[in-house]
Amino acid sequence: MLDSVVAQGMPLLELRGISKSFGGVAALTDVDFTLRAGEIHGLVGENGAGKSTTMKIIAGVHAEYSGTMHLAGQPVHFRSARDAKAHGIGMVHQELSIVRDLSVAENVLLGMQPVNRLGMIDYAAMYRIAEEQLKKLGIDVDPRQPIGALPLGLQQLVEIARVLFSGARIIILDEPTSALSPPEVEKLFAILRRVRAEGTSFVFISHFLDDILRISDTVTIFRNGRRIETAAARDIDKGWIIERMIGTGHEELEESYTGEIFLHSKPGAAVVMTTQGLTREGLFQDISLQVRAGEVLGIYGFMGSGQLELARALFGKLSLESGSMHVAGAKLRLRNTADARRAGLAFVPESRRSMLFHLEPVYKNVSIAILGRISRLWVRPAAERTIAHTHVKSLQIRPPLVDRPLGTLSGGNQQKVALAKWLTHLPKVLLLSEPTRGMDVGAKDDVLKIVRGLREQGIGVVVVSTEPETVLSMADRILVMKRGRITQEFAGEVVSKDRLLAAA
Ligand SMILES: Nc1ncnc2c1ncn2[C@@H]1O[C@H](COP(=O)(O)OP(=O)(O)O)[C@@H](O)[C@H]1O
Ligand SMILES: [Mg+2]
């Protein structure tokens, strides 16, 4: 439908001056974006840069925005995902939207199942069609199987297949490869190239810059809610992208994207925590590790590798089936998070929402966090504010207004508030899960400095993440997890993103 009116290589979809805010906080500012017919358009930018929001506007998920959109020269404003779909636009979201209990075939043909004369789903036909279609894409799975039983990578491929079969001519893939193994990525790329040759256009969002450069015709960089630059992939390289992604003056972060990093591991430092054979079937197996004083231990793995669950288990939020833990030489009986806290562990989870009080002012959040200390003196608002002011200043929380509700701060600044309490109540081991996810570069730098500061005070820090850059910028020693097991340790050596990915 669309390619009959727009010749290959001509602008197919044009966004002009798109701005969007959530609850008064700007997510996108004046974004222009052009997708050409039959191109693969790579989209890069740090977490929170505005990639998904822009694509959700195109896919009809966000109907409220300012600016204009033209499809094949016609003005459009989609009111719903269904509306966008009717115009030939499909999106595979960052969060998988498969229905786990349904079969592979039902997922592939969701909403398009063939029916028989009685109007009932024709299962035989459904399985046959799904099998044929999947085979054409080189995806070898039994269409009768429940999709939830497949490995994450295959689930992801099946979801992509569904959008391909829906007849969409513009397909947006939001970080489709984070759950894929290298051979699965190759399979996906072969599919994209084949479908592109038939005239379909793709937007491909990824953090893996090598992948972006390999598969894309055109690359656009986003930073802090703005489109920074667009270029032909053949004219640019990784360094060029990174400069625009994170801006200048962030050398340490930049190094974690491009460079080789020497891990200053401290093999002689005192061990503060050990685990032996920690297992929780289906999530992680046989995890034995050591955390040392004054060292940041990074645990990296793809999404679904088990490191995020491991961190929760270390803090007693997830029960273990077997294995043992020691903190400062004492055997730990972790029944719940209170046990963990008593043993000197602290945990800052990925989603800060659960720990903070969004409607309360910043100063309350800081003082609630450190209440153990001030309540003994007496909680006086003036004293609370004074203490909060000190923290807000030392943590460079922006804006530095302690009376603002916490919820009005950016994610990065909320994270700093969440970290504030550990500056006054030093734990023995601090567990951080995805500590800088979704933050802008400035906030990332700030959190990095706080973590370094905590390390200098001699505590053991564990950083678990699915982002190689996060682990590389923070860690002194790195464990890589794959399918629930530790597969490699990097210590006292030079490591790069490529080496980490190769081990994952
Ligand atoms: N549903 C939402 N509600 C509130 N804020 C949001 C929502 N979706 C995205 N944001 C905010 O918009 C900004 C851009 O986010 P996003 O488009 O998801 O970035 P990216 O996909 O590049 O990581 C971030 O600051 C994020 O916190
Ligand atoms: Mg996103």
Describe the structure.
- With 504 residues, the protein is an alpha/beta fold.
- The protein has three domains: 2-88 and 168-248, P-loop containing nucleotide triphosphate hydrolases (Rossmann fold, 3-Layer(aba) Sandwich); 98-165, no CATH class; 260-503, P-loop containing nucleotide triphosphate hydrolases (Rossmann fold, 3-Layer(aba) Sandwich), CATH 3.40.50.300.
- The protein contains 18 helices and 22 strands.
- A six-stranded mixed sheet has the order 6-7-8-3-9-10, with helices on both faces. It has a six-stranded mixed sheet with strand order 17-18-19-14-20-21, sandwiched between helices.
- α8 (238-246) packs antiparallel against α9 (251-258) and α9 (251-258) crosses α17.
- The longest helix has 16 residues, at 182-197.
- The protein is globular and about 70 Å long.
- The two termini are 42 Å apart.
- The model is unreliable at 372-377 (pLDDT under 50).
- Bound molecules: adenosine-5'-diphosphate (ADP) and magnesium ion.
- Adenosine-5'-diphosphate is lined by residues 22, 27, 45, 47-53, 222, 411, 438.
